[in-house]
User: Which sequence fits this backbone?
């Protein structure tokens, strides 16, 4: 079956450099346009990942890292279910400025393609939703997520179907599986942005 071409479904998918992407987000974050578009597009990534995570993490005091938190959509979903200890990171200060007050205990501006300035074994869970996509964060970030996650902790992420093979996520996940650094719990095709006919691979892994 031929791979579906999703590269033209959303304007930001056409951008190639980090600078182009950040400039786009600076405009997208104005007047709550980003959040309004996510509602209009029926963007289900945050809800789907949190619902998957909930089935395997019952400790509402778990400390969670939201990598590429954007405007805080994952945090909003986590809060609905009683989770209250989460930190967020994003490269766009404009989006970080729009995160609801007091939703995250800590927010940091960070380039997730580089080593994260966090200690090993810090978090009980890591989310990365909507960030493994065109022109954004590359597969190497998965190793950093494993590093900052405690033994037995969970890593939950989405990978846009359009970059899964082109960016080498398929090979990186196979490599991590073979290296025995984590155990696969779930890996399936999710709705993601149903209104745009864009799906994503949704993965849930437990760090060994």
Assistant:
């Amino acid at each position: 079956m031929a791979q579906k071409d999703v590269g033209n479904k959303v304007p930001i998918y056409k951008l190639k450099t980090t600078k182009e992407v950040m400039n786009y987000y600076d405009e997208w974050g104005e007047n709550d346009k980003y959040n309004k578009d996510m509602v209009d597009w029926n963007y289900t990534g945050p809800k789907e990942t949190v619902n998957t995570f909930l089935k395997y993490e019952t400790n509402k005091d778990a400390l969670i890292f939201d990598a590429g938190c954007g405007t805080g959509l994952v945090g909003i979903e986590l809060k609905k279910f009683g989770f209250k200890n989460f930190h967020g990171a994003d490269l766009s200060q404009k989006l970080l400025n729009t995160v609801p007050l007091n939703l995250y205990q800590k927010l940091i501006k960070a380039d997730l393609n580089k080593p994260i300035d966090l200690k090993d074994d810090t978090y009980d869970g890591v989310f990365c939703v909507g960030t493994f996509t065109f022109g954004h964060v590359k597969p190497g970030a998965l190793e950093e997520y494993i590093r900052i996650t405690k033994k037995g902790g969970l890593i939950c992420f989405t990978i846009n179907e359009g970059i899964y093979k082109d960016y080498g996520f398929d090979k990186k996940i196979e490599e991590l599986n073979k290296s025995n650094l984590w155990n696969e719990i779930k890996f399936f095709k999710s709705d993601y942005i149903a209104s745009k006919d864009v799906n994503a691979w949704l993965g849930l892994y437990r760090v060994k």
